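Morning run. Coffee first, then this:
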Amino acid sequence: MSIVPFLVLSIAAAAASLASRGRARLEIPVGTGGLVVATIAALAISPGDLLRLGSGEVLVATAYGRLFLVLGSAFGLILCLVALSTAWQPNLPAALLIGLAGIGVGLAATDPLTALLVLLATAVATSLVSLDAASASAQVRMVIVQVRLIVMAGLLAFVAVAWAAPALSGIGSDPAAFGLADLAIVLAVALRFGAIPFHRPVARLTDGAPGLALPLLLVWGPAALAVVVLGATDGSTMTFLVPGGIGQALIVAVAAASLLLGAVGAWLQDDLEHVVGYSIIQDAGFVLLGLAIGGPAGHEPARVWLLVLVAAKTAFATWATVVEARFGTARLPDLGGWARRSPLLGVALLGIVVGTLGAPGLVAWSARASLIDAAVGQPLQAILLAGGLASLVYYGRIAAAGISRPSPAVGAAPTDRPVATPRGGSAVATIQAGWQTNRAPIAAGLVLVLVVLSVLVAAGGLGGPEAAEAAAPHPSPAAFNP
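And here it is:
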């Protein structure tokens, strides 16, 4: 099956979800049902199927794009179930479905310029839907900042790719022009991920955005942009053609700053959602290293890492949301003893660490090591490796709070033990009563499902490495023929 049914069903479900907002009997089944259908449709995509308009190929389904959409749809469904067990967010299903439809087009489009335009429009639409600025002026300002950043990054990437196209006269013989275009493309990716020194908008977004929308806004959309950029530059025969290697040095410097200072920023934060934001900034440094290497040899581990990043950061953001809902606070100083009160969430945090860092022999670990080895030599390799492992510092701080003496807020929270509910009335009423009574253990269990999936991706399961290796690059607009 081609990708078209997935796109049609996702867009239709998004429209139905938006139309049903405000009617609880409709918006919940419509939103969650739409994501169920989207997951099934994503699983049914056959890599290699294509849509033609005239003589040209328009959309080509790939194994990598299929896996990305399957993960996104399944994760989106779990995010909505978590919202049901914590605090329902009426805009969340529509935002997820819009985002998935746009990402599907972006990853399948054979023309990188078309893909970039679609991803730009999609990112703006999902931000407007998920952030919903109708209630407060501060929210309006946050939406304006986010949309402005998206437009700036998207247009920068579009102009850079178009500028480097060999068909444009006067550029094909100028290596420096290609080098500047490369830098502009990487700058666009850095802006979208909030890499240091472009991290301020990420901090603002974590202040006001719903916690369960953060994976879509901060990880899924930027990751899709990075995939398209990797495909658009796969055919380059030279790496960052700015004379003297200045271009590559600048990108490695930004990546190193993100790895090191992102970890420091996460360690200094008391609010868990801020920790999540800075952890995304930190691990986005490996994406920049992949772009600094250039060519398929560097881009294959970068594609693998993007799958790991999407899975692990979705699990971490969901974990933080559930912790806040469970204990009534997201401030780490007030969360003493959280792991004692909820061992399920304690196990989940351990799984998030494994899913993010991997371990020797796992795909996640190998991808990070490959990116570091190919980007720099010693002693910089040791510095970047330490930067990647620096996340253990803030994970350790969270774990230390979890095993300390329980705070009043934590002590008053429900435990993981399920509570039996008496049968009465209809089966639907009994299920609803059981869900309401056991929302705490259900939410923790759903986080564990996300964590298991993230560890599976980090271990190389679900065909991630094979999909990354087989990802057919788009014809490169940045190829230089001396």
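The radius of gyration is 22 Å. Good start to the day.
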